[in-house]
Amino acid sequence: MKKKYYAALLAVVVITFTGYNVYQSQKADASLSDLAMANVEALANGELSNGNCEGSWSQECCKCDYIHYTYACAIEVTGNSCYTVSGCSHYTN
User: Fold this and answer.
1) 34 near 52, Cβ under 8 Å?
2) Angle CA(85)–CA(58)–CA(90) in degrees, nearest 5?
3) Alpha-carbon distance 4 to 55, whole Å?
4) Once rounded to an integer, what is the mean pLDDT over residues 72-92?
5) What is the reported pLDDT for 86?
6) What is the pLDDT of residue 75?
7) How many CA atoms lie within 13 A of 13 on its CB side?
8) pLDDT tens digits, one per residue of 22-69
9) Do the Cβ atoms of 26 and 18 come closer than 8 Å?
10) Cα 87–Cα 80–Cα 62 angle in degrees, nearest 5
11) Out of the domains of life, which is the source (predicted)?
12) Is 75 a member of any domain?
């Protein structure tokens, strides 16, 4: 009889402890660190560039004939035209 009492008491303590920890983790504010926020801003930079895209380490962007192109490698810009270098694939934004 004593073993059942202690087992039930232990179960209640474990359930209470688990429930409290779940409650505390859900209550905590989800905030981004400065590094994560800087990363988000860097990824979003240039999305509204009005044709003046800035290249990143992996992509170059250019506006040709009123269409934004993002290349998976470098581009050459000559006057109002842009050209891919050595047959890079591209997609329109």
Assistant:
1) no
2) 50
3) 68
4) 48
5) 41
6) 47
7) 6
8) 888 877 666 667 787 777 776 776 554 444 444 444 455 555 555 555
9) no
10) 50
11) Bacteria
12) yes
* DSSP calls for 48-79: T-TT-----SS-EEEEETTEEEEESS-EEEET
> What residue numbers bound the domain in which 59 lies?
51-93
Please name the amino acid found at residue 79: G
Whether the Cβ atoms of residue 56 and residue 44 lie closer than 8 Å to each other: no
Q: Is 11 helix (H, G, I), strand (E, B) or coil?
A: helix
* Closest by CA position to 57, among listed 74, 40, 33, 44: 74
Residue with tokens 């087992």: 7
**Per-residue pLDDT for 4 more than 80?**
yes
Instruction: Kindly state whether residue 6 falls inside one of the protein's structural domains.
Output: no
Q: Which amino acid, one-letter code, is at 33?
A: S
What is the token pair recorded at 85? 């270098």
Looking at the domain assignment, is residue 13 inside a domain? no
> Does residue 93 belong to any structural domain of this protein?
yes
